[in-house]
Automatic annotation (TrEMBL), chain A:
Every ABC transmembrane type-1 domain range: 88-283
Localization annotation: Cell membrane
Cross-referenced PROSITE patterns: ABC_TM1
CDD domains recorded: TM_PBP2
Keyword ATP-binding: yes
Protein's UniProt name: Sugar ABC transporter ATP-binding protein
InterPro entries: MetI-like, MetI-like_sf
Lineage: Bacteria, Thermotogati, Deinococcota, Deinococci, Deinococcales
Chief localization: membrane
Membrane topology type: Multi-pass membrane protein
Keyword Membrane among UniProt keywords: yes
UniProtKB/TrEMBL annotation, chain B:
Protein's name according to its UniProt entry: Sugar ABC transporter ATP-binding protein
Keywords (A to Z) from UniProt: ATP-binding, Cell membrane, Membrane, Nucleotide-binding, Transmembrane, Transmembrane helix, Transport
Origin: domain of life: Bacteria
Domain ABC transmembrane type-1 per the UniProt entry, residue ranges: 83-298
Length: 298, 309
């Protein structure tokens, strides 16, 4: 499972009849079409964000960039009452704090399940996996009621990140990686040297599991950044708590109305998507291989 | 389980923390699950049998037995219709996802291996993007008078299509967005499944004189079975909970005629707009049963075919 495609392809060309170049044309055409369709909505959002609002919907449509980036930003500040940066910060705050807490608690639990023998380990791990069978949707109503009637956290960002600090998927991913990548002797050696149990985790384990931390980190960040339904349910709709997806909904909901500031909306779309593109492109290989290796093992 | 039977005499701080550290390390999950998982689940099950709005205050719930469930399954409510919509959109988006992803993965794996990394990154891109933002982009493409789709259709002489206005068209329009988001994810899953198949098996088959089609049918497909099961399961569980795309494209009512009202949207409206928490809880449990039944069906189909091979 750990052999990468590069390693596998390494021992010379495979015994296969060489194909004529023109036979590869359909394959390339198909792939280029698939890539084009994947990318074109991203391209268009940037194109639209760079044209004056009145020209976002023109006939024939714009297919190349314009010069209205700045004025659309000003338009966005106007329609959001200057709150756009604040909304960006709210989304970032929730995504970052979700990511850090999830990485910490999931790696700690995954380490315990991978490297310790303790009474009830199998049952506890089985229970954690079992919770993955609950569809998230079933949790919407009861978690709102807990936040609303017991904790009073509705309208506060912590209603979004506290429940997700440790999750079954993260623990599973961490355990898989740690048990296959770290030898137990390493832990024993550190123990001989007099390290405390938490010290071993912090000084030996954490530095060695960076790749899988990157995978889980990106996945958690993207999930928290994109959490629309959660923000909707927990009513993060005040100016000081509104996140980007809610703001998008407020400006662009039922989006066929032409009489709104489309340049501003597209600017907000771009702002919502750019951090995702950056985070993913920085770690895409790691994320993809980390996610699918967990899938194959299952 | 514990191979280490500690001699009682040599008690020390080291041994003490060694014994309790793992419990401490795994406890955050269980504490969080108790507060934000188990208790809410039980509470929601309790509410499913009651009539209650959060405005009534704690304790003021009225026991109604199976009335909530009966109402959902009866002819007057939208629940059945929403379930049908959900299934229909799920089929329209789900089946093409796998019919396209499998050949794509196969071509990349066998003919374009050098570009595998780049291609997976590009195809994976839609999966990580923001559903709300993308729904706005697609709504723009779908615009009846000024959208690019109808513009392109006009170039080849087609009449404008009311992508989001015509109830017959709505499921296709929503499904197309879902398809766009997840086809790359499935391709990447299948790609990693293909990589896990050893080359030796193919070489042995070549020696035995198998042709390309036979190799695909008798080697690739059976060995890809676990990954297909996994990918199908994710598609089923995901499509049954579809919410953001139709909610953004069509507003919370699901567009004209409610053709895009999914069960998740209907439950959301009942709970958070009408504040009928008991009824919404009952419906969410019914949807859970539907998801469970479909997963079981998927499981059954896969294990039965697997037994035959």
């Amino acid at each position: 499972m750990t052999t990468t495609p590069a390693q596998r392809a390494a021992p010379g060309p495979r015994p296969r009849r060489a194909r004529l170049p023109w036979q590869r044309v359909p394959i390339w055409a198909l792939m280029l079409l698939a890539c084009f369709l994947s990318v074109v909505p991203f391209y268009l959002m940037f194109v639209w964000a760079s044209h004056p609002s009145a020209e976002v919907f023109t006939f024939p449509p714009h297919l190349w960039f314009g010069d209205a980036f700045i004025s659309n930003w000003q338009g966005l500040m106007q329609v959001t009452d200057g709150q756009a940066p604040r909304q960006f910060w709210n989304s970032l705050y929730i995504a970052l704090i979700s990511t850090l807490t999830t990485l910490f608690f999931c790696s700690l639990a995954g380490y315990a399940f991978a490297m310790y023998d303790f009474r009830g380990k199998g049952a506890l791990f089985g229970f954690i996996l079992g919770t993955m069978l609950i569809p998230p949707l079933v949790m919407d109503i009861p978690s709102f009621l807990v936040m609303n009637n017991f904790l009073g956290w509705v309208g506060e960002p912590r209603a979004l990140w506290v429940p997700g600090m440790a999750n079954a998927f993260g623990i599973f991913l961490m355990r898989q990686y740690i048990s296959s990548a770290l030898p137990r002797e390493l832990i024993e050696a550190a123990r001989m040297d007099g390290a405390t149990e938490f010290g071993i985790y912090r000084q030996v384990v954490l530095p060695l599991i960076r790749p899988i931390l990157a995978t889980l980190g990106v996945v958690t960040f993207v999930g928290a950044w994109n959490n629309f339904k959660g923000a909707l349910i927990m009513k993060l709709s005040e100016p000081d708590t509104m996140t980007l997806p809610l703001s998008l909904r407020r400006l662009g909901g039922g989006a066929t109305n032409v009489n709104v500031d489309w340049g501003a909306i597209m600017m907000l779309v771009v702002i919502t998507v750019i951090p995702l593109l950056i985070v993913f492109l920085l770690a895409s290989r790691q994320v993809i291989s980390g996610l699918t290796s967990g899938a194959v093992k299952d | 389980m514990s191979q280490r039977t500690a001699p009682r005499a040599s008690w020390s701080y080291t041994r003490f923390q060694q014994r309790f550290a793992p419990y401490l390390f795994v406890s955050p999950f269980f504490i969080l699950f108790a507060v934000f998982g188990l208790f809410p689940l039980l509470f929601s099950l309790f509410l499913a049998f009651h009539f209650w709005s959060p405005l009534d205050g704690m304790g003021n719930w009225k026991f109604v037995g199976f009335e909530n469930f009966g109402l959902a399954l009866g002819p007057t409510d939208m629940f059945w219709k929403s379930l049908k919509n959900t299934l229909w959109i799920g089929l329209l988006s789900g089946i093409p996802q796998h019919l396209v992803a499998l050949p794509l993965a196969f071509i990349i794996h066998h003919s374009l291996r050098r570009f595998q990394g780049t291609l997976s990154t590009v195809l994976f891109l839609p999966y990580i993007t923001n559903a709300v933002a993308i729904a706005i982009v697609f709504a723009t493409l779908y615009s009846e008078r000024l959208g690019i789709l109808n513009y392109l259709g006009g170039l080849v002489g087609l009449d404008p299509v009311r992508w989001l206005g015509d109830p017959n068209m709505v499921p296709y329009s929503v499904a197309a967005v879902v398809f766009w988001r997840y086809v790359g994810w499935n391709t990447v899953l299948y790609l990693s499944g293909l990589q896990a198949i050893s080359e030796d098996v193919y070489e042995a088959a070549t020696v035995d004189g198998a042709n390309g089609w036979q190799k695909f049918w008798y080697i690739t497909l059976p060995l890809l079975r676990p990954m297909m099961f996994y990918a199908f399961t994710l598609t089923i569980v995901g499509s049954m909970q579809l919410f953001e795309e139709p909610f953004m494209l069509l507003n919370d009512g699901g567009g004209s005629g409610g053709a895009g009202l999914t069960s998740a949207m209907h439950i959301f409206n009942t709970a958070f707009r009408d504040l009928d928490m008991g009824y919404a809880s009952a419906m969410s449990w019914l949807l859970f049963l539907a998801i469970f039944a479909m997963s079981m069906l998927n499981n059954y189909l896969f294990s039965r075919d697997g037994g035959k091979k």
